[in-house]
Write a structure and sequence with these properties.
Length: about 450
């Protein structure tokens, strides 16, 4: 099989079906291109989990369709298999998620993208629908309808739904040809963009299921296991687009962005979006920080953060104005409390905290509406600044310790010190958020030793 497919179907631990017999993959040497398998009867099957991101290399065309724009051009797709589900054949019940440490796959291809106007997103969030679930469902439905417009199979296509894409400046749904260089399928769909969107809406609207099924918005090859999915939200998004008016300006030429700060683990790239625009009440936000039990060196590298464990987690709740404390055994309660917030705020929360927490639960942390301040600062400057640096220059406050000291406290059983340190980090993160929200800038010191403002808009 081809190299790209092998990462998804013949990774170590995968169950491979061949001529009616099941084999378990015992060795996957992606460098030499060698796979070894052992015939074995098992009562489960496997499905790879992956994360994806995309960069618009060159915009070749664009067209207005009702209330939005559809673009076409060359894309760079970056994909990484991060683990796999084991599910019982009899009941489809998951019996565990196993992590994998495989290199990224990159290729360039042709694709189209459907921009989701901010006004549409605001309306969806105002009605308390799941925006990420909506665009994810839209992506699946669009790929599913393509074979009715173009002579292709859905397995020849790929898709990414992104709540905020730095090149479009808004949410976007990308559909791309699955082969390097492209096969012309997305070009044909782009040439019939109005029909493409109308048919996608029709397939969702006409399906009699309540919350989504393989006939409308579920995909058999979804890298995140069809989560999150919101059929009603997808239908509403398409309704608003098809009923909308042409935006005043749309002649954007996309520039290649800075390298992303992180890549997330559930097929949704860098979730950074703000729901407060459509909320007619005080924003209920939470500020989260965690401390780990093990260092990156102990688990084999930062890419294995899901193995680090949690010594404590602190969540500031704006509704109660209290700091909630959680230990590793309290993850269910933490998840429940996070889900009640309109917005989760953190510093490197997407690149680190969520990855650590994902090792303790199947919950999709990346689907939470999240503001990661390190990403917002990086988007403007093109490089990172530490929480301690921004706190000192903006607020005149310092961190009371660091992560290495917290690890030493964990080894010594001094939980009070860890909780106090983590709580201080949460307070500093909250104060930075409120300062930036009020003044629309933070302060940092540049290489020349001068204090400089970095504009923020959250």
């Amino acid at each position: 099989m081809d190299r790209h497919r092998s990462y998804f179907e013949t990774h170590e631990g995968a169950v491979y079906l061949h001529r009616g017999l099941t084999y378990v993959i015992t060795r996957f040497d992606h460098e030499k291109g060698v796979v070894e398998a052992t015939q074995k009867q098992v009562n489960y099957y496997t499905r790879a989990r992956s994360s994806k991101s995309t960069t618009i290399i060159k915009q070749m065309d664009s067209i207005m369709v009702k209330g939005t724009r559809v673009g076409f051009g060359m894309l760079k797709i970056t994909e990484q298999v991060t683990g796999y589900d084991r599910k019982l054949v009899s009941s489809q019940k998951s019996i565990g998620v196993m992590p994998l440490d495989l290199p990224e796959l990159e290729f360039e291809t042709q694709g189209l993208w459907i921009e989701i106007p901010d006004t549409v997103r605001d309306e969806i969030e105002y009605e308390r629908m799941h925006f990420m679930g909506g665009i994810h469902a839209l992506e699946h439905a669009a790929i599913g309808i393509m074979p009715l417009l173009v002579m292709t199979d859905r397995n020849d296509l790929g898709g990414i739904s992104i709540p905020f894409h730095p090149q479009t400046g808004k949410a976007a749904v990308f559909i791309y040809d699955g082969a390097p260089g492209g096969l012309g399928f997305c070009r044909q769909a782009f040439d019939n963009a109005a029909v493409f969107l109308e048919r996608t809406f029709e397939v969702i609207d006409s399906c009699t299921c309540k919350s989504g099924c393989p006939c409308c918005v579920h995909s058999p090859k979804c890298g995140s296991g069809n989560r999150p999915i919101d059929k009603a939200s997808a239908k509403k998004i398409l309704e608003l687009i098809l009923e909308g008016k042409k935006p005043e300006t749309f002649n954007t030429i996309y520039e290649k962005p800075q390298e992303p700060v992180t890549q997330d683990a559930v097929g949704q790239a860098q979730t950074v979006y703000l729901p407060e625009a459509g909320i007619d009440r005080p924003l209920h936000y939470g500020v989260l920080d965690i401390e780990t039990r093990r260092s990156a060196q102990e688990v084999g590298g930062w890419h294995k953060a899901d193995k680090m464990g949690v010594s404590c987690a602190i969540l500031y709740d704006s509704k109660t104005d209290c700091y909630q404390e959680y230990l590793q055994e309290d993850m269910d309660q933490l998840i429940s409390d996070l889900a009640q917030c309109d917005l989760i705020i953190g510093f490197n929360i997407i690149g680190f905290d969520y990855k650590v927490l994902s090792g303790l639960s199947d919950f999709d942390f990346y689907a939470l509406p999240t503001l990661d301040m390190i990403i917002k600062v990086h988007e403007y400057l093109g490089y990172r600044l530490s929480l301690d640096h921004l706190a000192q220059q903006t607020l005149g406050e310092k961190k009371t310790a660091d992560g290495l000291m917290a690890l030493e406290w964990w080894a010594q059983g001094e939980m009070d010190k860890i909780i106090s340190y983590c709580k201080q980090d949460v307070k500093v993160t909250r104060d930075l958020y409120l300062y930036g929200k009020t003044h629309r800038f933070l302060v940092f010191k540049n290489k020349a030793g001068q204090q400089v403002r970095v504009p923020v808009d959250w």
